[in-house]
# Entry
Amino acid sequence: MADDFRRPVETFTARTPRVVAASKLHRAAARRKAGRFLVEGFNSVDAAVRAGAVVELFATEDALDRFGELVAAASASGRPVSPIDASAAASLAETVTTTGVFATCDAAAVTAPAEAVIAAGREAGVLIVPVEANDPGNAGTIIRMADALGAGGVLFAGDSVDPLGGKAVRSSAGSLFNVPVARERDVAAVEEMLADAGFSTLATAMDGETVLGRDPLPGDPVAWLFGNEAHGLPEDVLARATARVSIPIRGGAESLNLATAAAMCMWETARGR
# Structure
């Protein structure tokens, strides 16, 4: 089956214009300008193909052989499948050991206006709102957790990391294509939209009056607010939240990793439902 996709005479190199354009998507400014982003690896590319988000698939000769069904699915959907050599793969890869399969994807297929993501969160009963989150690995993991635990969407508020960056996409393990995602730089505007939509906002804090796992949480719909990895949530955001929620720590650790804390909070909400 993979032989059918090696028929083009030309194998793209790192200097081929389409590869050059794809490699530029490592930069956030290029992603915004093109309205596209780059994904790498079987899980992410497979999820992108199934979601109908792929613009073009790139694969080395070895990847064409290894991932024949994936390549066939992309081709069957009408998307171009472009063979690439090792130099092209190196220019597209962000991982040390690449699988050799990549895809450019339409950003509009996974992102939405903040209002639409809030509406999806209201329908599901749960929305995740990282505020000024800076770590792409945490961002992707939170998207993955939101997918696994039934949240309606993830709304990145404030000066947050780009969820379409390479590390965030890989950390989401394909869940980026299952959960609607939005970015809104105005945190106060996000809070106002949440209030207008009838959400209870749960802000994580070290000194929260509500203790996770001990005290009851408000009923649906709820929006979990998670703060910056180093500084937590701003005081004004904490002051306006419906409830400040703390996670009890039994041992000597001072705090929890953002993605770990988010997973615990989302699980508690899912368990209660």
